Amino acid sequence: MADKVKEFFQKKKLDYKFSKAGTGHTLHEEKSKPLDMKDEYNKPPPKRQAQSSASATAGAAAVSRLEKGGPVVKSSRELYKDYAAMSQESKASATSSSHSPIVTTEIIINFCCAICKKKIPENQIHCHIQLCLQEEYIKEPLSSSVHMIHTLCRNEEQKKLCIDTISRYLDNIINNPTEVKFRKIRVHNKNFQEKVLCVIGSDLFLKAIGFQLKVLPFEDGETSFFVLSEDVATKTEELTAFKQLLVSASPLKSELDRNSQLFIATSKLNQFDLPDSFYNMSIEEIKKEQKLKSAALEKESMLRTKAMRERDEIKSAMRYYKFVVIRIRFPEGVILQGIFWPFDKFSEVRQFVLHHLIDPTRLYSLTFLQKIVSDDAASLAQLGMAPAAVLNLSWTDKISCGDKYDLILKPDIVQTIKEL
User: Fold this and answer.
1) What is the pLDDT of residues 122-166, one digit of tens each?
2) CA angle 86, 92, 97 (to 5 degrees)
3) Ranges of Basic and acidic residues compositional bias (predicted)?
4) Domain hosting residue 318, numbered range
């Protein structure tokens, strides 16, 4: 799929864009111990009919794991195994590439973990964060479980439904602390499975605020319940605070790593090997959308202004591309490369350049498609730089260092230089 997507976009946009960049013309003007969660859910109720919704499936799967004595989420051991497998796969891919007779420059997407601050590949970051949160649960069960709910659930509608349902449970208890029926939640209740238990961290949150798992009589047998004692239920101020924490929290945001790289300028300056992760849509979806868009534009072409067309192009760039790779060509004969979001402001590119300069006070200009970029508040998508762009840097202070790039850039980036 990657080859088709690359061909589709590069033919329409990249070739034109990079041919304008020119070749060297002068211009005038940035360990704590792993958590091993074991729960004693058991004794299932009578079997229900199969449910087709994703939440029902997830809830049923969670109960199935719990009935076998395991946690709703994967254990730390399982996560470590998955994480190791993904890491090994990445290493194997890198090793395979290193043995290729043709040296290629791979564009890698990494994120800085919001918890441990380590740089983690995009395909591993979700599993890594889950592992970090499970380890943190030992020390901070309440905040960790809240972060699990907000961060690990990618379905916003399902997440909201889970939080609203737990909030109702707590409201009922706060308003009726001595009422037994409000202090018990049956594990196999259909609504509980589909609205709460299917979200990672929900059962851990209930435990963190005082619920205990107990096997109690039910109908003709016994089954598992989450039960809150009356002593805990009467502490309504604490329960109100727990609810407020759950409702007001926000997902942990892992920062996109710039993955700074320095290259010796070559004829491959305008060649970008973009991975699948750069695209939000498959080639089939892109073609379908382009066809519909072309038909709509044809009908209203006479009524559309230039500003309207530009706005549509920006929206398309945001939909099609997840990331942007920027290459900055220095007059000293080197290229600085970094990874950005399409919605990042151009000021982020300037900060990226300044971060790597020995003297951040030096004055320079950046040129794209033979025009100096002056609108720092514009997004990269607005400027037409998605999914990749080459910028030319020119010193405006007229101080020349010849080809001595090591006098311009910091040692840490200079030490990584390689041929593009």
Assistant:
1) 999 999 999 999 999 999 999 999 999 999 999 999 999 999 999
2) 130
3) 26-42
4) 2-29+258-419
